[in-house]
Amino acid sequence: MASRTIDTASLGRFIGESAAAIVRAAPAHEVRQSPGATLALSGEPVADLNYITLAASPDPGARLREFAAIIHARRLPVLVLLSADVADVVAPVAQELNLTHAGGMPLMTHDGHGVTDAPGAIAVGRVVSVADLMAAQSIIAQANALPEDAVQRTLGPGFLDAPGVDVFLARQADRPISTVITTRHGATVGIWCMATLPESQRAGTGRALLTQVMTQHRASGAHLFYLGATEAGYPLYERMGFRTIETLTIWVAGHSTQVHG
Q1: Which of 23, 121, 242, 251 could form a disulfide with 80 if both were Cys (CB 3.0 to 4.6 A apart)?
Q2: What is the pTM of this model?
Q3: pLDDT digits (tens, 9 = 90+) for 162-200
Q4: Could you give all domains of the chain from N- to C-terminal order, each with its CATH number?
Q5: Collapsing DSSP states into helix, strand and coil, what is residue 128?
Q6: What stretch of H or E contains 194?
Q7: How far is it, in rounded angstroms, from Cα 8 to Cα 225?
């Protein structure tokens, strides 16, 4: 039987690769990668659409300085995600670069067991058309207080052809109300940009969407799921059986609507 656990080094690599895959459809994107370090910029002036991820590497502080110079030259805000094994080492560099500490983000995993498709009025499907992608873009922007035009450029039409990346859309009475992006690394699936329209939240919609998405991935061989939980999303994920394996430390250049110090 395949392992349903993962070492944090592999998970850190997957997170960096996923961030890069998510921004590559943006017209002004820029991606730099080295072992344990990823710079993934959409090019939009929105911190939540630009990422630096740092995990175990020979000199994570040097990588942060290198990436920060690019951010500064492009005048972009950014989210910096640090794994637990580099957070203390990198903290003085982050302070030196005038980044703002924005707390921690639980990194959670689930083996998919015990997740079953619940009956209900929510229909979930993979996004294959530009019209449905635009609906997903709008939901992500509204749910996360992000500029819709910036989300549209970041997740442009080319996003539908991104390898290993899928967008799912949930409908109720044929009305799009919830969406999520997944990234696939073999049997491991990352869960990103979980979003539900504000007026449809706290009604079981997110759980129904995520349950069906995980069920579909399990049917094609997935056996491990991971996500970074925001404060708003954490209770749902915990109820569904996700468990925290470590806490990422978050620093921000600019302002984020998703994480707060």
Answers
A1: 251
A2: 0.93
A3: 999 999 999 998 999 999 999 999 999 999 999 999 888
A4: 8-106+246-253 (3.40.630), 122-245 (3.40.630.30)
A5: coil
A6: strand 188-196
A7: 13
